[in-house]
Amino acid sequence: LAIVTRAFPPDVTSGRETVIYNLWRQAVQQDDVTLISGWRYSPRYLPAGTLPIDQSSASRIINYARFFFTSALLIRRLRPDVVLSNAIELGPVAVPAAVIVYDLNFGQADAVRGKQQVRRALVGWRVRRLDAVITISHATEVQVQALGVVSNRIRVIHPGADLARFCPAAERRSESYVVICPGRILPGKGQHVALAALGRVPPEVRRRVQFVIVGYMQDGAYLSRLRELAVGLPVEFHTDVDDIAPFYRQADLVVFPTLMEEGFGLAAAEALACGKPVIYSDYPAIREATGGVGVPVPVGDVDALAHALTALLKDRDRRDALGRAGRAYAETHYGWAGVYQRYQRVLERLVSSRQQG
Question: What are the tens digits of pLDDT across the range 276-291?
């Protein structure tokens, strides 16, 4: 098995890197695996034995071309039985290949994503040429079908969560509230919406809140804007942390105010795994990821988010009930061992079909 990815943690960290890391971790325990990975900052961040591809150019076109041609060359040399790619930039290969498609938001809020039709067309052109497409939700499956991929070539496999790492902490008794807003620091994740909502929480509640924005810093200008918006509010910022799990565990409540049509909503799933109630933007994929556990609010609706925050912070019994339900759902649906077994079945069918001609 060759696992091919544009990026890998800790060199780059986002939901898709988290997914491919955990799939790779399962695969190396069971299969003969070679990792082919791009790197942005340093190849030293990649696991030993990885075949690296330079993705450090400021030009997206140069990075795409490097990945396209180099990945194809490395696959020809390796001659694996099958390829699992985390990137549509995978070059043409002569062996069966499956690609994971996460979303079609390109890291941008819905309001500005209309400019990305060329990129959507490119995604469609590439994925139609691969043997199988694995989407991380039924919501993404619908979008991929709209690109012209026939339904019998698409498989839906939800991501998992590391249930040992993302787990409930000992019960915290305090008169204060810790609210975390996890996710990459970029406008599409909607941290500014969360800050605006916090400003509308009644003062007698807000003065007891410790609001924590935590995640990989992707947009420095946006972070500066958030710091300005946070003046006078009880807000902390933690960027590029080594481990986000402790932030979930210390929280009373998790807020996920994304403005992007997420492919799954891994932050919401990780909150559930930690036994935390989550308020999330009401997108189909996030409802799917949470199994309906949590509190959905209309996308970008500051007043609705402020109301949901206030109501949950005042209602410990409801927070506890949602937390218990979330952990139970995560234990049933999010174990990585079971997720990788579903990937194995897809890959094995590809190999078998190719052998049978």
Answer: 999 999 999 999 999 9
Check if 2-160+335-355 and 177-333 are the same fold.
yes
The domain segmentation of the chain, as residue ranges, is 2-160+335-355, 177-333
Q: Does position 111 have pLDDT exceeding 60, yes or no? A: no
Between these two residues, 150 and 227, which has the higher pLDDT value?
227
Structure tokens at 37: 């990975």
What tokens does 70 get?
A: 């180099």
DSSP 271-310: HHHTT--EEEE--HHHHHHHTT-SEEE-TT-HHHHHHHHH
Q: What is the pTM of this model?
A: 0.86
Which two three-digit tokens encode residue 146? 């709209």
Question: 2 with 84: CB under 8 angstroms?
Answer: yes
Q: Which two tokens stand for residue 318?
A: 């409801």
- Are 24 and 33 contacting, i.e. CB atoms less than 8 angstroms apart? yes
E strands in the chain: 2-5, 34-39, 51-54, 83-85, 97-101, 132-135, 154-156, 177-182, 209-215, 235-239, 253-256, 278-281, 295-297
Burial of 117 (0-12, 13-18, 19+ CB in 10 A): exposed
CB 167 within 8 A of CB 273: yes
Place of tokens 């924590």: 212
Question: CATH: 3.50.50.60, 2.40.10.220, 3.30.450.40, 3.40.50.2000. Which one for 2-160+335-355?
Answer: 3.40.50.2000
Average of per-residue pLDDT values in the chain: 93
Residues in Cβ contact with 322 at an 8 Å cutoff, skipping those fewer than 6 apart: 277, 278, 293, 294, 295, 312
Give DSSP secondary structure letters for 330-341.
HHHH--HHHHHH
Fold of 177-333: Rossmann fold (3.40.50)
Model pLDDT for residues 181-198, shown as the tens digit of each residue: 999 999 999 999 999 999
Distance from C-alpha of 207 to C-alpha of 341, rounded to nearest angstrom: 47
Higher pLDDT, 347 or 353: 347
